[in-house]
């Protein structure tokens, strides 16, 4: 299936290669470089590139291209999903997935890749199995290892590998047993010029951090499960229970994981927490323009909107911006043409406003289109859909765990057209 | 065999003799060495000291520097130190300290990762293959796998280590030895690999068996001649019942022998049932394979619908109403003639894959989606839309692939995605390739009802800054306009407005699209043509200019005054035009000459003369051809008479089609589909068969009952049984299966703990018999197994969990055709002060004691407080009766319910079992009285066995009654359902349709119970029960009579 993997940074340097079958010369990447050049933006590189004898399937993540070489038919999503899993594993192991961390931990990276694929077919991709096979690096451990000469590699087969619940290892022990659940909802919306909603929906995820001893069997139930229209689960969740009783019953993995993601049914009207009044115009003469943006609260249910950021991708002809903000700071990057206005907390009494003039390249025709605004925001302790966790029960273990649920609403792909 | 084992020794000898020379000849031996680094190795081996100076001066900037892009400086230093470091590394590898070795190996692996050649270290590294330190060992493996192919002779040195590893008691070591051994691509060890794979395929540890499955494709790619032997191994591993192996072996199957569909038959149902517990990657492979399998084995579920659809579509256009009705009647007749009944196995596949749509893994979701698209009845395909739309939230690469597939699906099944139209709206931040795909989907989804919203969306897209995307949007508008007649004029007006756009690309694209639209109804739009004629002065994009010229030429009669003037202008600029424009100028000239020769004769001649001396031969040819055709001369042939017909023929309007049309002949989700070209190794998706092949090939053979002792096998036998009743083809059992599996999953946790002990034991004994067939090394094997058993025993929890999961998935098949299991009340909620207890006979074998009946008890706490310490006390039983209590339930929270399983040996009597049910505060006296039908378990007998046994149980042991069947007992199926609902018996296959036979045995004493129902004319029937225990027989007759006469 997957023949080889090449890691290439944004500048086009190939800094790691791994082969699971016969070695394929790194010159194969020339086809990739060609496509990369043609695409201009890294986002626009086609995920599947055809070469005379191979196929290159690549993903772009954390400024690194993961380029895999395929020789025969294989579902492209299979490879893409796997490459993302690789990136996530690196993140899990080293805290971040970047060129420097990969270069610093190249041996562990190699050991991981060796375990994750056998002859190109995924072998162990569950992080808890991998962590038993190859222990993640910590400062303490690397010190101890250099002194004692002991290794990072486990000697026995991880128990998870053989069981039907590969995501959990046996013999987990904690002195403080706790389980935290974060309900994070994101509003995806497109508002048009006049502020009416073209499209809005709510997507949510429940992230969990479970530190419980033994083999706990948890059941999570909601006050209003009917809200959930479409769900996808971590493999630990029992589908049947969800289908019949609308409860989430699972034996959790140890540590951090995403329990489920969901979509709120389309019938429910989406409350849009803020409104944006904007006026961006470019003058026919004088190569300048005006910009005036005001943000105000709309349906916030009495909560405060925080971390409010407005991002505008300006047309190429805009050279600089001379603006004044009543709240927060703004910054215009003339290279990327991005105007970023960091507002912070939204004060309903005194609405934040950004006003001023834009200067354009002289002689260039005025831009056809006004740029759209991308909004970022956060509301703590509040799930915009109204979803509420009812209770969390634990079976199978005797201790009493500490349980906590947190709600956050964020803006997802929230866009205002102008 | 012996010869093979000696091989490494020989190899060592060879190597020893060669070793001295090897390093010198390396370059010649290994063709893979990169040219710029190999000379170094060669030098360093011969005379490193002298050459070091030489190289640092001479080659620093050149050879190495280009390989090491990051910086010249680093390149220089690495060049200077590299030979040194390699000597270093050799020294470190030869040292006695593990830490030094480890450090050296780490540096070597880091070099491999950067693509540096370290093959000269091979001899030094390979010596450490037997190193005690596991990390060193692993890194050596990494090195070995990377370079073994290049240094085949030296690689043989390591083989004996792996052979030893294959016999190690630790399953991890055995597995990794096999993994590395099979990864060394050295043809000479093929026989050793083959042997190792065969042995590992019957290993105790499922993990080793999984590794064996992985090794199969490796060996196959190394030596395709081994195929036949490998297929045998695949066949064996396909029969494996663990989820761990399933995915890997199907992968091997797909790579080695994807066309051997016959190997799947026997394992089909098992694979379907295991699917949900297989790891995600395996799921993808299995689902894709089963899609192909199902296409060869089942009938098209939409066969009747497609017939209906075709005829109704025709009817739609037919003017005659009567004909319409005729056709409908005909279609209805067709349906009647060929009633489609879905094969239960087909249904099983659809049912078992459906929950996987909820997987977090996009590849799994896509695999299920394509399975439904290719296999499901039309009405059911819709469910995949929601899941696919969900994937649109994922990474952009995932979006890209999903959108490609959605685009193909929307062409065939537009309705499916219509509710999700807005999810395909485009954001300005999407990458261009995603935008264009979304546009494609939106265009495919457009119809009369939603076109106005879609067009409004498109209008905002046209203003985008991304010009490629704007061009695609304009084309999309054009396609909507051609497909939906109502909006054609609106679109056209919109596009004409775009002609005054400032961006030339936008104008050009609009011109091209308008040209296509005008072709549909040119008469009404001569003003647009005029408008476009004016544009020719400004537009520079060749394609657009060519389009305008073509339009004017084609419809020159609508614009008689303008056309010659345009030609005049173009004649002036002819020499500076692009080729496509030149061709169109010639075209325009020819058409004008034919219609308006008075005004344009000279102009045409001038243009043709210019073209005659053009650089491009196409243009020269065209000019010559046209001149002959249109200018009448003496010599000109018969064709010139028809010149007008040739040039001004009515041309059909172009059809704007989606590039995704007909892509669905590739299996969706595949690489080939994405590229719209067959990728290597792609397996065609077969067409549905005309008539279904024999479904009985999937029936699983049942081993002889009497020989089989272990419980697990017995259980399976019972599980396999219903396939026979299944094949009678009715959706009844299918539905009941769902409800039953739910109740089964309730007991999951309880049965897991109960089963753990004996379950694992029985598996091993099962395997023991299997491996005993291989008589070689029997003693060794046993020893190893004993050790293994110890390791195995450590993890009973997981083992049982696994078994339990398999168990529950199997339950889907243990369908007693009765509907749901009847619940009885043990303790009413009021008498129990809020604690309600119900029980039922789950009909599952009670694993701790086979002579007990499993009673599933469900406690529900209706109070507001916790109930604690639920347990059983003081059973008061008839002599001989025994109770196996369930484990005490510590806490039952308010509002919760819990299910446990207990076992009761009723001694084959219907006497009640009395006991006390205790909570932390109260005690309740309760009793369980079993219906006689629950005191037995099914037994599988063949028809002949049945007759033989019946013969032994005549006279006193036979009870026979006549009865009249109830109104609803109309067919055999109902009878079977009624009888199996009353008593836990299994159906015995039977040739005659007038007779239904059932067999079972009592749980406690194991006496056979045989039941025969013979139906006669007029709803009368005769019931015969043969049983050694007359009391049981009499009571059973009574119960069954009651059930049948209702």
From TrEMBL, chain A:
Main location: membrane
GO BP terms, alphabetized: intracellular protein transport; vesicle-mediated transport
Topology of this chain in the membrane: Peripheral membrane protein
InterPro entries: Adaptor_comp_med_subunit, AP2_Mu_C_sf, AP_mu_sigma_su, Clathrin_mu, Clathrin_mu_CS, Longin-like_dom_sf, MHD
Protein's cellular compartments: Cytoplasmic vesicle membrane; Golgi apparatus
Record keywords, A-Z: Cytoplasmic vesicle, Golgi apparatus, Membrane, Protein transport, Transport
Name listed for the protein in its UniProt record: AP-3 complex subunit mu-1
Protein's organism: Sinocyclocheilus grahami (Dianchi golden-line fish)
TrEMBL record, chain B:
Key word Protein transport present: yes
Region annotated Disordered, chain positions: 53-85, 709-801
Compartment(s): Cytoplasmic vesicle, Clathrin-coated vesicle membrane; Golgi apparatus
Basic and acidic residues: bias regions: 710-723
GO biological process assignments: intracellular protein transport; vesicle-mediated transport
Cited Pfam families: Adaptin_N, AP3B1_C, AP3B1_C_2
SUPFAM superfamilies: ARM repeat (SSF48371), Clathrin adaptor appendage domain (SSF49348)
Residue spans crossing the bilayer: none
CC annotations in GO: AP-3 adaptor complex; clathrin-coated vesicle membrane; Golgi apparatus
Compositionally biased intervals (Basic residues): 782-794
InterPro entries: AP3_beta, AP3B1/2_C, AP3B_C, AP_beta, ARM-like, ARM-type_fold, Clathrin/coatomer_adapt-like_N, Clathrin_app_Ig-like_sf
Record's keyword annotation contains Plastid: no
Job of this protein: Subunit of non-clathrin- and clathrin-associated adaptor protein complex 3 (AP-3) that plays a role in protein sorting in the late-Golgi/trans-Golgi network (TGN) and/or endosomes. The AP complexes mediate both the recruitment of clathrin to membranes and the recognition of sorting signals within the cytosolic tails of transmembrane cargo molecules. AP-3 appears to be involved in the sorting of a subset of transmembrane proteins targeted to lysosomes and lysosome-related organelles.
PANTHER family with a match to the protein in the record: ADAPTOR COMPLEX SUBUNIT BETA FAMILY MEMBER
Entry's family note: Belongs to the adaptor complexes large subunit family.
Protein name listed in UniProt: AP-3 complex subunit beta
